[in-house]
Amino acid sequence: MAQFLQVHPQNPQPRLIQIAVKLLAAGGVMAVPTDSSYALVCHLDDKAAVDQLRRIRGVDERHHLTLLCRDLSDLSSYAKVDNRQFRLLKAATPGPFTFILEATKEVPRRVSHPQRKTIGLRVPDHPSLQALLQAHGQPLLATTLIPPGQTEALNDAEEIREKYEKVLTAVMDAGACSLEPTTVVDLTPMDLGDAPLLVRKGRGELHLLNL
Q1: What are the residues facing 165 on neighbouring strands?
Q2: Residues in Cβ contact with 51 at an 8 Å cutoff, skipping those fewer than 6 apart
């Protein structure tokens, strides 16, 4: 049965954040709010948790998973980035953007794209999620919480609890999120001198990237 953690959207209670950290460290999969929609998250290095996250979401290993990072200081450990790519990342983070980048060897193969060896990276602008990332001390693996067979993400914590209480470890309720997903931008074409590729238009403002 999923625990229901009702956190303040702007000033999350440290006690509840620590509970969430312990649940993740023990292999839990949680639903958390972001600056777009709710997302599923788990510990990056926990294979069983990653498999469970994929089962809940209804995706296989070809689906791009995303690393949620506190800030860009985590970047060099998990993604290969040149100066031009870094300038774009700095201009658009934190915010509702997901960037696809070449993964480093620090990223377990099971969570990077099997053919391309890429990973999604995102620095969210949501106080409760930022508090969780800060307390956790490293990025979380994530995917947008879209039920299998549907196209719209969930944004209501009560509905998420009702639908997933038997398969999730916890739901972090910080109020309703936007129904609009992140903007996804593939930066890997820049490795060959090409322009970034817009994969999905979402909440992110494209003018920040000159797209």
Answers
A1: none
A2: none
- In the chain, the domains with their CATH numbers are 3-209 (3.90.870.10)
CA distance 175 to 157: 7
Tokens of 205: 């403002």
Give per-residue pLDDT as tens, 90-111. Answer: 999 999 999 999 988 877 776 7
Rounded Cα distance, 129 and 132, in Å? 5
- Per-residue pLDDT tens over the stretch 117-153: 888 999 999 999 999 999 999 999 999 898 888 888 8
Q: What is the C-alpha radius of gyration for the chain, rounded to an integer number of angstroms?
A: 16
Instruction: Give a three-class secondary structure readout of 104-149.
Output: CCCCCHHHCCCCCCEEEEECCCCHHHHHHHHHHCCCEEEEECCCCC
Q: Tell me if 189 sits within 8 A of 199, measured CB to CB.
A: no
Question: Is there a contact between 43 and 26 (Cβ–Cβ < 8 Å)?
Answer: no
54 CB-contact burial (10 Å; exposed 0-12 / middle 13-18 / buried 19+): buried
Give the Å distances, CA to CA, from 110 to 51, 80, 96, 123.
9, 18, 25, 22
Calculate the CA dihedral of residues 148, 119, 75, 105 and round it to 10 degrees.
Answer: 130
